[in-house]
Amino acid sequence: MAKQNSSDAFVEFERVQKSYDGETLVVKDLNLKMPKGEFLTMLGPSGSGKTTCLMMLAGFETATHGEIRLDGVSINNIPPHKRGIGMVFQNYALFPHMTVAENLSFPLEVRRMGKSQREEKVKRALDMVQMGEFGGRRPAQLSGGQQQRIALARALVFEAELVLMDEPLGALDKQLREHMQFEIKRIADNLGITVVYVTHDQTEALTMSDRVAVFDDGRIQQLAPPDTLYEEPENSFVAQFIGENNTLEGVIQKINGDICEVRLDSGDIIDAKPVNVTKAGERTKVSIRPERVEFNSERLQPGAHTLRAEVLEFIYMGDIFRTRLRVAGNEDFIVKTRNAPDQVRLEPGSQIEIGWLPQDCRALDA
Amino acid sequence: MTDTTDTGPVLAADGTPLKKSLSRALRMQKLRALMLIAPLLIFVLVTFIMPIADMLFRSVENQIVQETLPETVTALASWDPATGETPGEPVYAALARDLKVAVAAKTHTRLGSRLNYEKTGISSLFRKTGRKVKKWDLTKDAPFKEKFIKIDKDWGDVGVWKTLKVYSPKFTNGYFLNAIDMQKGLDGAKARPENQQIYIKLFKRTLFMSLVITGTCILLGYPVAWILANLPMRTANLLMILVLLPFWTSLLVRTSAWKVMLQQQGVINDVLVWLGLVSDSGRLVMINNQTGTIIAMTHILLPFMILPLYSVMQTIPPSYVRAAKSLGATNWTAFWRVYFPQSVPGIGAGSILVFILSIGYYITPEIVGGTTGTFISNRIAYHISSSLNWGLAAALGSILLAVVLILYWAYDHIVGIDNVKLGG
Amino acid sequence: MKLTTTLFATAALAVSTGAAISESHMAKEMTIVSWGGAYSNSQQKAYSDPYSAMTGVKIINDESSAEAVAKLRAMNEAGNVTWDVVDVVASDAIRLCDEGLAMEINADKQLAPAPDGTPASEDFGSLRVSDCFIPQIVYSTTFGYRTDMVGDTPPTKICDVFDTKKYPGKRALEKRPINNMEWALLCDGVPKDKVYDVLATPEGQERALAKLDTIKKDVIWWSAGADTPQLLADGEIVMGSTYNGRLFSLIVEQKQPVAMLWDAQVFDLDGWIIPTGLSPERQARALDFVRFATDTQRLADQAKYISYGPARKSSAPLVGKHATLGIDMAPYMPTDPKNAKNTFLYNYEFWADYRDDIDAKFQAWLAK
How far from B212 is each of B183, B397, B413, C338, C362, CA to CA, in Å? Predict the structure, then answer.
């Protein structure tokens, strides 16, 4: 999966397992390599093992099996305070009894840095997050977004090369969150630091990351750049989890190189691209992104399979139209169309024909 | 805006002034709220405020002299004790008339015991005199001066008359002066003889030992509270029962148990001798002194330290210590710089509880304190139940109350009382 | 309503004239306050149980005698006295009388005469130390010692208490000046009849404290009557002062290796008072009970259960054997001639005057 070879991996998980109770594995056989400077997001539903991985990397949990390496050195037995990894916590964990400046100065003090040098670094870190004015305040006097910036500055002030972030934007409102996403990304890029970012918000993962590791059931389901992840999900979990997705179930009729024929449960036949199906007779879930569905027959490729559909609902959403259809027995089949001047608004109750390019329609595991 | 003229108050819909109808609406709410808290309010008033007010009043109240000997007090006003001579016949005659009434009402012995606190011997003087005065005829038996001195030569003692004069006002600061080892005289207050000074010493000892007890409670309670706060809920609850267990046993039983443990032929000494750590003749003295009081009271008051500490520690998220470690702090630095400062409100609350409770303790010091481990409250208890000098007891109590309030005020200034948390 | 008032008035009149009143005018319930433990037990067996059986009165027992003076004062101030008869030591009775908290009793009119017709005042004699006090028992405060810790020469004199060379080890003394100051002066060479004269002077008080100073580091100070017996049983002390009845049960009932030192033991009295401020019905009941409980036979009966001497001269010949142990009680009585060879008489008048003064000095000395 990883493109780099072992020698230039900055962070490396090798066959890592973790169990809390000795009966079930929370993390099952994790392998991951990250090059220096990468922004990697661990994405997954809660309980998928992503936070546990982060905590093992930070040193607050020990791996039950396997090895974690940082810059080529095994860190399994190094206590957290000697790992030199910056971390931003879910609720920021700013020390409430210290001022902002004292919070930032703390990691420098424990490194026995001189006073003038400390002050200079604190000032620089505060300026970096545009909080230069707030050094004398207590965390409780700051808004959520401001606290977020301070937490970020504190994780960066001692010039950690690796920064871990555990759902750092979870407590912010939507607008602020989007703003901070860009902010974090910008700072990370400017400093050239390596970031491991944990979230369960897929939009956040897609907008910020160089690569996203989708976790489920203690394993990485797919590790890929955002566009690949969205457009070429490798299994039906990833297809479902990332973005909006229409699923039709059926059985593989035959596979012919890049194209396979699927007989849906309704009896209709469609063309699809086989991804992780191997032979005829296998059950499959066919995945089509809502924006790749076409109902204007003129735009369909000649010879493409089409399906009959009934319009159930039309929702006007400003930039796009969202239309719900009944297709092959599925009543939650969504079509998204751009709000263009020539765009057709489908009437509920009308019967239409829909279709798509076979390569947009991926036959995945059932 | 334009059609209302600013000449009168804003009116409600029915024409009454808005302010009035608003306050009427609110009055109902206030009344209802008041009714809800009324039982508590009355309870607090009756059981807390009133006794304190009563105590403060008793510590200065001194009406008994005027009530029992009204004429004598008036007559004494013109007597000048500086002459060193006893008062003249009018005073003795007034005393005879007053005593005649007092004996009939049997109040003279009461006055005697009151004044005996100030001058030894007055108690029997009044009792003795009362028996004789009963038989006197006020009109025929005059003059009285000689007669009084014949009953007891103390009536010719200027000191007795001085005491009467000093304590004739309705209110006195005499009790308070006694409570700080001083004496009230006609020419102002002066220190008591050294062999009678005890209260200042006891106040100091009480404060010092309460501080030591608070300190040992912090030392012992902090780790326990930390373990409780960091254990899983079920185990923590079980251990919490163990912490609270002492509350289910009578205070007297617990204190007596310490006696059995600590005495020279007690369990601890037996074990030490058996282990060969101390010789049989060198058994440790751990009871009937300050050590005994500190050990027993630390044990009894420990839960009051652990409970607030525990509830404050529970609210400290583990992520703070993790954050500190991720920033490079060692375990100790993370604890001392990050965890400990946040547990200070719990220490504050626990310390205030333990300190104030221990300042007022008397059963435990009485039983295990011997002579060096007793508190000021033991003297207060003595004056309440044995010497019946309630005025002095009230003055001592008032001073104790004032000390606590001053300490509270100082604490508020130094640490800030909003930094005290019992939980959440 | 009117009728009851009249009845009350009549009852009050009857009481004041000392005439017997009929049962129907007395309260049907009464609260008796005493010290608890074996002592209360002996009173219940000798007085309360027979009295209840005879009259059908319901008797409630309260064990508050130790705080009786303070509590009575508080009840009196609150105007709600709930006690009918209270057992107190003589000095407390004097105090209660002085404070007007106990009613005065006319012994000859309100108490039973001896069987031979001797009036009560004569039968009690000098033991009636206050007009409010109805004497009941004579007890003494004396020393008990561990027979296994004194070698072959057990202590025989009070001054052995002050001899830490001959009898090393801790001794227990009561945490108050009374008794201790007298013993100290006696052992400092003051003749018995001069003790209170000396103690009345500041120099005498200093002298007594100086004598106590010589054993101060060897003293465990007790404040509850149960302390010394417990300390003796635990072997914590070699000797200690306590009430002779406590020592009796330690020696005879618990069979501990302890013996009594009968020298300069301080005679003290315990008896009844009736609080003032009772309703006429309750007062009549209290007087009726006290008259019954302090007659010659009843006082002798109590000595069957506890080793305290009866306060009436006429009761002495009637004292017999212990009710359950069957042993002769006389040798354990403080009043027995063999024990009373050298007794010390407690001066109530003196202590009523000097208690506050000497106590202040004593406490200051203790705290040094």
Answer: 32, 21, 22, 53, 27
